[in-house]
């Protein structure tokens, strides 16, 4: 075959052409005689995104030839197709096994890569090994020769050889270890198998078989050779798109240069239109100075060739950019365009645009989709694995049980009831936070204790089923096990949870099931052993890397990445997010070898990345009759650098045609206008009226019967809080406390002191000897013993609670010193934890008094405080903090014959300081203060009953700890 006839079979299309349409028409015409049966013809395209549009083009072309359909035509990616030529004797290592195998191979060499994660290292190495294999770059058998080669490439002196040796040793050792592992397993890596298959296909391909290939990536050297052979055998038609230059002047031309050189393709003719000349100038690195280029362009075309064809939107920020894209797409749809593409590498922008368009009822066909790990199906799986890791902790367990994916076949009502009982009875009321056996035991206990006849069988059944589902995985939690066994155990576990069938019914769920099947099928070639943590990392990585693409009902608007847009043409397109960080973006930095060494070794370099990116960008600028390029000026308050090529385009255009701007100024203004955000079908919902400070009036009958001191204090601090919390009885669900809170600690201290002075069932006897210096040690010992008993249950639950007990024990000696002194002052403990009720006119009052002391002249009321803060004495004396005078009022009604001589707090604040009474009120102060506090309460109750509103007026301290803040919405009305 002559070079000319070889070139007859290679079609290089300019950027503005539609390669899929051209290929489809040529193929149909070429095989016209055998239509509609195209058996023996294979069409190879790399990206599955291209297959759909290509099929449509083929059908159109067949219809033009009078055929309504085609049969026998095989459309596949090159790599898939060629795989069928791998000899039967070769066992190919799957991608799943390759990663595991390399992690396994890395284990003995942990010392070479310090603390680096073997998973990350494996993924970097697999990329490197793939490039080495496909580039047919062999590493010498001995490491020294490899170091020599690198030393030459780096151009370093002998003194730096040792430093260099480390990098070379890692790569060399791991490369050989990896191949050793493959040999031991009788496997061939997928890339070597690919090269072998290419060679075999040349020997075994039916000589009548015809291949048609459209390719937009530079093929590996072995693939180039394969293409050349098939072209020479007249079994291949090859379609390329771009500019072939003898000496490329910019990145876009470099992309296909290696293949063009290999096939000795002639240079394509220089650009003929003014628009193409403008674009070529933008990407031409050898172009004359900008002013000169601009002058030449303007001379050749007085009118800007980009007008009506290319526009640039420079957005104020990311939201403005997204809104402009949303608006432009809607305008194009209204104008009747049906093939619209949004091409971006910025996933954050893509997500926002998707949300805006979906708001307007426009579905995007998103080629990237999203990571499987972000779907609700994967979240349910994750929660299940957390249940196993955290001993069925309440949070993952409740999330799991409320997910629609578990026990999907069970009686839904019964399952809901059992879950509700678990949450309300055991978790919230019994405060059981984890462990199936504890849940079970407390379900029985509770039933006995409350003489509750409720049937707990569904609850117990639920625990049994969870236990049975957990068994296959829990059996593997210790030690290392083959990856295949882990997956089998996980699948069995999901089956017992009845999750497998529910997942199948869900689009993302079925993708998850497929992933598990792929993992199960991919690891059977070897016995790669993983511990639990490694299994979790491995599974997590696959959930991250596997993408889920919901099937859209409409295909009019497509969301694509740069590479996914290859070979396609559109009615209109938006090249979005043209910032330097995304277009072209930065190549992933490999930890191995610098650019010079990569060049010497023949590995892909940074330039390869830029050539590919700029090739796609350049092509897209001609891939539609209407192109909008967008970029934003800032992100999260930080300035953003727009792409240099875009900046160059704008400057060049401005200099060439100063009075014809490329900027889409009207669109930018529209996108900033409020109307741009409205969509036509949106119902006209009136805006809610502005929030104001709430002042509700309490309906008759809702006033709670009686007041405790905290009710009264709440009413004073914020009447609205009282209204919501006490009258309406709204309260947030109590948090499950796995750790003791300061309130729990306070309660236990109260019990310790109560038991020291008065009998408490289930605790050691009170100290019955007099509190005097001679008995100090014995009294301390008794209080220590009581404290041990009071804290015993929480210590059993959580050893960290020792800290709370230790905190309390530090106060014990000081308390007894204070108690001895108090006794010497004539005071005896009379009652503890006394519940009292009383009456203030028509208002009922109640309270629990921590301690009543008596002396010959009268009584004293003490309130223990264990928190950090106390009311200020001035607030107590002014009646703003009402607790102490309120207690005096109550107790005076219980024992009117004994005057209340003193009311005070005993504050356990700092164990290293002597204890003393705080905010002490004497009999003289109590008399008027108690009366005032009592009268004010009666007045307030009268006013509420008369319909006076209860305003939200909490101060900063009250609002900081308010559970009703979400209800009163203070930040909204306060501004
Ligand atoms: S947030 Fe403040 S104003 Fe609102 S109810 Fe709570 S305490 Fe009152």
UniProtKB/TrEMBL annotation:
Keyword Thylakoid: no
UvrD-like helicase C-terminal domain: residues covered: 279-567
Keywords: ATP-binding, DNA damage, DNA repair, DNA-binding, Exonuclease, Helicase, Hydrolase, Nuclease, Nucleotide-binding
GO biological process, one term: DNA repair
SUPFAM superfamilies listed in its UniProt record: P-loop containing nucleoside triphosphate hydrolases (SSF52540)
One Pfam family it belongs to: PDDEXK_1
Name of the protein in question: ATP-dependent helicase/nuclease subunit B
Organism phylogeny: Bacteria, Pseudomonadati, Pseudomonadota, Gammaproteobacteria, Thiohalomonadales
């Amino acid at each position: 075959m002559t070079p000319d006839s070889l070139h007859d079979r290679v079609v290089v299309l300019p950027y503005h052409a539609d390669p899929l349409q051209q290929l489809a028409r040529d193929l149909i015409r070429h095989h016209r005689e055998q239509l509609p049966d195209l058996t023996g013809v294979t069409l190879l395209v790399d990206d599955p995104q291209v297959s759909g549009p290509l099929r449509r083009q083929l059908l159109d072309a067949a219809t033009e030839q009078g055929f309504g359909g085609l049969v026998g035509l095989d459309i596949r990616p090159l790599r898939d197709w060629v795989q069928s030529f791998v000899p039967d004797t070769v066992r190919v290592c799957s991608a799943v096994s390759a990663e595991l195998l390399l992690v396994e191979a890395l284990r003995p060499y942990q010392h070479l890569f310090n603390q680096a994660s073997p998973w990350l290292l494996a993924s970097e190495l697999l990329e490197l090994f793939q490039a080495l294999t496909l580039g047919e770059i062999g590493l010498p058998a001995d490491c020294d020769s490899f170091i020599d080669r690198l030393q030459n490439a780096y151009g370093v002196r002998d003194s730096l050889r040792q430093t260099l040796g480390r990098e070379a040793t890692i790569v060399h050792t791991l490369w050989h270890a990896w191949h050793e592992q493959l040999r031991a397993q009788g496997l061939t890596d997928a890339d070597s198998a690919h090269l072998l298959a290419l060679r075999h296909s040349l020997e075994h391909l039916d000589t009548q078989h015809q291949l048609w290939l459209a390719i937009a990536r530079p093929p590996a050297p072995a693939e180039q050779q394969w293409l050349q052979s098939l072209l020479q055998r007249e079994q291949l038609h090859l379609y390329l798109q771009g500019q072939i230059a003898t000496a490329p002047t910019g990145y876009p031309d470099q992309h296909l240069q290696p293949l063009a050189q290999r096939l000795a393709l002639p240079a394509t003719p220089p650009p003929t239109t003014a628009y193409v000349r403008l674009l070529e100038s933008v990407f031409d690195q050898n172009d004359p100075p900008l002013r000169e280029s601009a002058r030449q362009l303007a001379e050749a075309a007085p009118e800007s060739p980009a007008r009506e064809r290319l526009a640039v939107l420079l957005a104020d920020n990311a939201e403005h950019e997204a809104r402009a894209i949303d608006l432009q797409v809607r305008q194009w749809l209204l104008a009747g365009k049906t093939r619209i593409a949004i091409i971006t590498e910025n996933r954050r922008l893509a997500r926002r645009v998707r949300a805006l368009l979906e708001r307007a009822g426009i579905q995007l066909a998103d080629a990237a989709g999203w990571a499987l790990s972000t779907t609700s199906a994967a979240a349910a799986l994750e929660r299940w694995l957390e249940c196993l890791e955290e001993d069925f902790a309440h949070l993952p367990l409740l999330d799991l049980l409320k997910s629609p994916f578990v026990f999907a076949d069970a009686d839904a009502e019964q399952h809901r009831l059992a879950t509700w009982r678990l949450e309300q009875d055991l978790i919230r009321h019994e405060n059981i936070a984890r462990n199936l056996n504890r849940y079970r035991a407390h379900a029985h206990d509770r039933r006995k204790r409350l003489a509750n006849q409720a049937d707990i069988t569904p609850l117990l059944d639920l625990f049994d089923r969870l236990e049975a589902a957990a068994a296959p995985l829990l059996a593997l939690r210790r030690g290392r096990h083959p990856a295949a066994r882990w997956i089998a155990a996980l699948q069995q576990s999901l089956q017992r949870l009845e999750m497998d069938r529910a997942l199948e019914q869900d689009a993302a769920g079925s993708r998850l099931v497929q992933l598990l099947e792929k993992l199960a099928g991919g690891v059977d070639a070897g016995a790669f052993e993983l511990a639990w943590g490694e299994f979790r990392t491995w599974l997590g990585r696959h959930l991250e890397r596997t993408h889920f693409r919901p099937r859209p009902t409409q295909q009019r608007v497509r969301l694509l990445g740069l590479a996914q847009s290859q070979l396609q043409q559109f009615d209109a397109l938006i090249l979005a997010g043209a910032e330097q960080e995304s277009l072209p973006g930065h190549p992933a930095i490999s930890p191995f070898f610098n650019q010079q060494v990569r060049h010497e070794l023949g590995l892909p370099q940074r330039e390869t990345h830029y050539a590919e990116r700029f090739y796609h960008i350049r092509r897209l600028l001609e891939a539609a009759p209407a192109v909008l390029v967008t970029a934003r000026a800032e992100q999260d308050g930080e300035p953003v650098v727009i792409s240099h090529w875009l900046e160059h385009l704008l400057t060049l255009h401005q200099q060439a045609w100063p009075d014809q701007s490329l900027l889409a100024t009207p669109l930018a203004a529209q996108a900033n206008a409020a109307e741009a955000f409205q969509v036509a079908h949106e119902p006209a919902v009136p805006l809610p009226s502005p929030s104001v400070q709430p002042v509700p009036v309490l309906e008759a009958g809702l006033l709670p019967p009686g007041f405790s001191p905290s009710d009264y204090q709440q009413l004073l601090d914020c009447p609205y809080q009282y209204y919501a919390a006490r009258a309406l009885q709204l309260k947030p669900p109590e948090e499950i406390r796995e750790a003791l809170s300061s309130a729990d600690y306070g309660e236990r201290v109260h019990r310790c002191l109560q038991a020291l002075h008065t009998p408490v069932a289930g605790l050691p006897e009170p100290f019955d000897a007099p509190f005097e210096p001679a008995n100090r040690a014995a009294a301390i010992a008794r209080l220590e013993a009581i404290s041990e008993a009071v804290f015993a249950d929480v210590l059993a639950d959580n050893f960290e609670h020792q800290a709370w007990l230790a905190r309390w024990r530090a106060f014990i000696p000081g308390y007894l010193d204070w108690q001895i002194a108090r006794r010497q002052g004539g005071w005896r403990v009379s009652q503890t934890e006394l519940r009292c009720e009383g009456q203030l006119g028509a208002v009922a009052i109640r309270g629990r008094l921590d301690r009543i002391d008596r002396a010959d002249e009268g009584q004293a009321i003490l309130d223990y405080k264990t928190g950090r803060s106390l009311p200020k004495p001035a607030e107590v004396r002014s009646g703003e903090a009402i607790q102490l005078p309120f207690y005096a009022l109550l107790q005076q009604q219980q024992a009117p014959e004994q005057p209340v001589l003193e009311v005070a707090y005993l504050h356990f604040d700092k164990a290293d300081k002597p204890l003393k009474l705080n905010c002490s009120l004497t009999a003289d102060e109590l008399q008027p203060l108690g009366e005032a506090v009592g009268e004010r309460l009666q007045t307030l109750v009268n006013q509420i009953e008369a319909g006076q509103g209860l305003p939200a007026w909490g101060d900063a301290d009250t609002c900081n700890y308010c559970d009703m803040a979400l209800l009163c919405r203070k930040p909204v009305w306060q501004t």
